[in-house]
Amino acid sequence: MLVDTCPRCGARAQFEVVWIGKPGSWSRERYPAALVCIACGSPVAGDVSERGHHILGLWADRVTGKEFPDVPRHIAETADEAHRCHSIKAYRAAVLLARSVIEATAKEKEITNGSLIKKIDEMFDRRLIREHVKDGAHEVRHLGNDMAHGDFIDPVDAEESGLILTLMSELLEEVFQSVARVQRARDLRAAKVTGSGA
Ligand SMILES: [Zn+2]
């Protein structure tokens, strides 16, 4: 059956092949095709096997990122870019960017000395992050380091990349977002006190 994740509606959906072209010179097994998602009715371009019995890949023409409103802009943009890479299945790029986000977060907190291991540990020592968030950051570092040093032996799969992005987001949540929420609550309380004259 022609089932894949629809790049338009995001659903795990069935597809109908409406057109099959000729394979490109770069691959004789991949036939360019136009498909329609049965779930949302959108046309989607992709590659199928000869005669269109299997989907070999759908082209994600819509990329999805993630917003981090209380994170400093340059870090938030990199984190968003990591999510956009993930959405187009560029998993190695997603992991590498997630590693950069962790390093940039340490730098933002003026932790600039030593290796990334030391920087993550220092964020914990300075009580910027809790222990499990620190451990998560180390997981991002492990996978990111392999790649930063040119070890592309093991491909990164969707699950791994998704998990790494979650761990990255948890760090941003802990260091920036949650702190900003507490500050907003304080500001609101202070404004009320001033307003009531108490
Ligand atoms: Zn769809």
Q: How would you describe the overall organization of this protein?
A:
This protein has 198 residues and is α+β, with helices and mostly antiparallel strands. It has helices spanning 73-87, 91-108, 116-125, 131-148, 158-196; strands at 3-5, 12-20, 31-37, 43-48, 55-58. It folds into two domains: 3-58, Nuclear Transport Factor 2, Chain: A, CATH 3.10.450; 73-190, Four Helix Bundle (Hemerythrin (Met), subunit A) (Up-down Bundle). 51% of the residues lie in helices and 15% in strands. The chain has a five-stranded antiparallel β-sheet with strand order 1-2-3-4-5, with no helix packed on it. It is flat, with a radius of gyration of 22 Å. The model has no long low-confidence stretch (mean pLDDT 88). It binds zinc ion. Zinc ion binds at residues 6, 8-9, 11, 13, 37, 39-40, 42.
Mean pLDDT: 88
Which cofactor or ligand species appear? zinc ion
CATH topology of the largest domain: Four Helix Bundle (Hemerythrin (Met), subunit A)
Q: Which of globular, elongated, flat, extended, rod-shaped describes the shape?
A: flat
Strand percent estimate: 5-15%
Order of helices and strands: EEEEEHHHHH
Q: What's the alpha carbon Rg, rounded to whole Å? A: 22 Å
Organism: Polymorphospora lycopeni
InterPro entries: DUF4145
Protein name: DUF4145 domain-containing protein
Pfam family, one: DUF4145
